[in-house]
Amino acid sequence: MTFRVVGRSVRRLDVVEKVTGRARYVTDMELPGMLHAKLLRSPHAHARIRRMSVEAARGYPGVHAVVTSGDLAWCDPYFGPALRDRPILAIDVARYEGEPVAAVVADTEEAAAEALTLIEVDYEELPAVTTLAEALAPDAPLVHTAPPLAGHFADLSTLKSRPGTNVCHQFHFERGRGTAALAEADLVLDETYTFPRVQHYSIEPHAAVAAWDEHGGLTVWASTQNPYSVRAELAKMFRAPLAAIRIVVPYLGGGFGGKTYAKLEPIVGALARIVGRPVRLALTAEEAFRTVRRCDARVRVRLGLRRDGLLLAAACEGDFDVGAYADIGPRIIQKGTYTATGPYRVPHVVLHSQAVYTNTTPGGAFRGFGVPQLAWAFESLLDEAATRLDLDPVDLRRQNLLAHGEEYAPGDTPIDGKFEESLNRAAEAIRWTQVAAAGRGRGVAMMMKASIGPTVSEAVVRLHADASVTVLSSTVEMGQGAHTVMAQIAAEVLAVSIDRVRVAAPDTAVTPYDQTTSSSRSTTMMGRAVQDAAEDVRAQLLRVAEAALHVPVRQLGLDDGAVVAEDGRRLSYEDVLKERFGMGGGELIGRGIVAPGRSAAPLGGSTPFWEMAAGAAEISLDEETGAITVEDYVSVADVGRRINPQQCEGQDEGAVLQGLGHTLFEEMLYDGGQLLNANLVDYRVPRAADVPAALQCHFIENGDGAGPFGAKGMGEGSLIPVSPAVGNALRRLAGVRLRELPLTPERVWRALRARDQKESTPP
Amino acid sequence: MSDTHTPSSCSLACTVNGRAVALEVPAHALLIDVLRERLDLKGAKRSCDMQVCGACTVLVDGAPVSSCTYLAVEAEGAEILTVEGLSHGDTLDPLQEAFIEHGAVQCGFCTSGMLMSARALLAEDPVPTRERVAHHLRGNLCRCTGYSKVIDAIVACGRRPEARA
Question: B43 and A647 in contact by Cβ < 8 A?
Answer without folding.
Answer: no
